[in-house]
Design goal:
The protein contains twelve helices and no strands. It has 270 residues and is mostly helical.
Length: 270
């Protein structure tokens, strides 16, 4: 359990702005091997980010006046909270990947563009469209049931952070390893790590089903899996492997398609 806790806190330190500092950081420790092992806890980070963001959304829906615009305000502010909580870590990956793949059809040139910290037109367009679509889908879900939007937000964050584990497990790392943000993930994920990540995910889905047993969680998960397959094929075809930016983009696409899967299933249930 001590090793489990240290790896989880290391993942939390790496993927969020939640402070793991001082004596706690000294207890957690650091090594490249530990950071690679912490990849198994990506979905666990989703529990924290998704849980806190869902709590913010629930609080805002309860406090704001019952008018249509309140749904937009609550969803936008909860989205701002989640971006601040992670330091836009995954959104940055999405923008960099869009700039790289949109900026050049040549693999080496695309990888070079992705290292540039400046955002280009492709990255800006991708960020705007993805964030806008996620907000719109959550508002749509909240119009039917605010509680559905709250629980869906939590489940989507955990599910979408499970998807990169399959990319790490099945594709080689192709970034500039000495300088890449995904340097600790360059080695393949172990079977034990993948199983640990799936346990995190399964527990989250059990909780979501317990809170809302009638919700179409299956179509939501299916939507995320479609996003995983699409991103896997894109990374394999264009880059012949993954980078840290590719993992961040996979999370963003998976989260969006989770909401879309739920939204498309609602009329069927109605």
């Amino acid at each position: 359990m001590t090793t489990f806790a240290r790896h989880f806190l290391l993942a939390l330190q790496f993927f969020t702005r939640i402070p793991v500092t001082g004596r706690l950081a000294a207890w957690v420790g650091f090594s490249p091997a530990m950071l690679r092992a912490s990849a198994a806890h990506f979905p666990g980070v989703g529990w924290v980010v998704g849980g806190l963001t869902a709590a913010v959304l629930w609080g805002l829906l309860a406090l704001l006046p019952p008018v249509p615009a309140a749904l937009w305000v609550a969803v936008v502010l909860s989205t701002v909270f989640s971006v601040m909580l992670t330091g836009a870590f995954h959104e940055d990956g999405l923008a960099d990947l869009a700039d790289g793949l949109g900026g050049s059809a040549q693999r080496e040139r695309a990888l070079e563009i992705m290292k540039d910290s400046r955002i280009g037109s492709y990255g800006a367009i991708a960020l705007v469209l993805v964030l806008l679509t996620k907000v719109a889908l959550l508002v749509l879900l909240a119009q039917g049931s605010g509680w559905l939007a709250v629980v869906a937000l939590f489940a989507a964050h955990v599910t979408s952070r499970t998807l990169p584990l399959f990319v790490i497990r099945t594709l080689p790392h192709v970034g500039d390893t000495p300088q890449s943000k995904s340097k600790p993930l360059a080695e393949s994920l172990s079977n034990a790590g993948l199983i640990a990540g799936l346990v995190w995910w399964a527990l989250a889905m059990v909780l979501a089903w317990w809170l809302l047993p009638g919700a179409p969680w299956g179509p939501g998960v299916l939507g995320s899996l479609v996003g995983l397959v699409w991103m896997w094929r894109l990374l394999q075809r264009r880059l012949q492997g993954f980078t840290g930016d590719g993992l961040g983009a996979t999370q963003q696409v998976g989260e969006l398609l989770f909401y879309l899967g739920l939204a498309l299933a609602l009329p069927v249930l109605a």
